[in-house]
């Protein structure tokens, strides 16, 4: 089986694939202070809970946007599975031409999103990932990545209000029924959640306009996408596991390669 590891700024998401089927997935809190041994304790317990043997894993693909954790994850894979992971970058065979000024600066998660979105749904497509940051990516019908944008994520926006003001509380990221809040908490939720929904709708409209692709397919993913999707006016595909699927596809395109 293939173990896909996506190391993000807020969470580390692990997915276990049996062929093309995602058998299990787990989400850990990202902690830059943890060692490979400490992370291995958590992963071993998750494997045991899911009745999976470490020996069932014969391949690993790794995407990381947290540089200090990349060597830690490499050591973890070596010690736990005696394998070398395929590490995601634009230098791999991706089936996408990266038409930006500095492809090596592309985040590994965005590479996986683009590969997953384009290979699963075709182009032209707009992939929106709602995580620590909210990212937009555009891939043409013939597989060219033209660029995108990066905006603050829902959690960052919410936490900013809490940490940068004297009286505003920390809130749950719930979507109020209307755009008129009746107290401080619901007004903050309106501003953060509905504000993000309107931003996503507006950015999609503008990307379609600027690229001349009014019918570009829209795919939403990311840990916080479920908060936004129900409020969107834009028709979209909601694929919460797109990044993991993108990692699986990248491994299949580069089978046998390690870095």
Automatic annotation (TrEMBL):
Its cofactor is NH4(+); K(+). ATP binds at residues 6-13, 132. InterPro entries: ATPase_NBD (IPR043129), Type_III_PanK (IPR004619). A monovalent cation. Ammonium or potassium. It holds the Pfam family Pan_kinase. SUPFAM superfamilies: Actin-like ATPase domain. Its EC number is 2.7.1.33. One of its GO terms (cellular component) is cytoplasm. K(+) binds at residue 129. Keywords: ATP-binding, Coenzyme A biosynthesis, Cytoplasm, Kinase, Metal-binding, Nucleotide-binding, Potassium, Transferase. This is Type III pantothenate kinase.
